[in-house]
Amino acid sequence: MKVVMLLFWGIVLFIFTCAANSSFWSTGVLPYFHWTSSPDFHHLLQMDLYHTKAYIIRKIGHFSGFSIFGTLLYRINKSYGKSILWSVGFAVATEIFQLYFGRDGRLYDMVIDSSGILTGMILLALMKSRIRTSGLISRRS
Question: CA angle, 24 as apex, 20 and 27 as ends, to 5°?
């Protein structure tokens, strides 16, 4: 069941990051995809930061979505290092795939995604440590 949850969440993240109409979730329109066989990789380096409400909500979505992904991955392999590595790899891949789907993958989104992953792992470690010190779980779990 843990693997199914991880796969489901990975698909959700992929749809949200690669759908051509990134606002489908707020407009009620079904997501669609547009393939671009020759993407412009220079888009990864653009720094087009906005301060609109919708933009900030999307960045919070990046942060929290990949935090959840990393946590779900940790539940499977029980390794913080592997979970961080594989989650960051998935985050980088989704940003690169966005270029092939007519979206604007950005290096700073990789940083936001990675920050969410690291924050999720730190919170998970703190929660496990606190629970362990209270005696509710053993050290092996």
Answer: 145
Q: Report the 10 Å Cβ neighbour count for 121.
A: 20
| 92: nearest Cα among 74, 108, 71 | 108
Give the contacts of 34 (CB within 8 A, at least 6 positions apart): 20, 101, 102
- The residue behind tokens 């995809």 is 33
User: pTM for this structure?
Assistant: 0.84
| Joined tokens for residue 31 | 């997501």
Q: Supply the pLDDT for residue 33.
A: 78
Mean pLDDT of 69-79: 97
CB 77 within 8 A of CB 83: yes
pLDDT at 58: 84
Q: How far is CA 47 from the centre of its chain?
A: 19
The greatest distance separating any two alpha carbons of the chain, rounded to the nearest whole angstrom, comes to 56
Query: What mean pLDDT comes out for the span 84-89?
Result: 98
**Which residues are CB-neighbours of 129 under 8 A, at least 6 positions away?**
none
> Rounded CA gap, 3 and 5, in Å?
5
6 pLDDT exceeds 90? Answer: yes
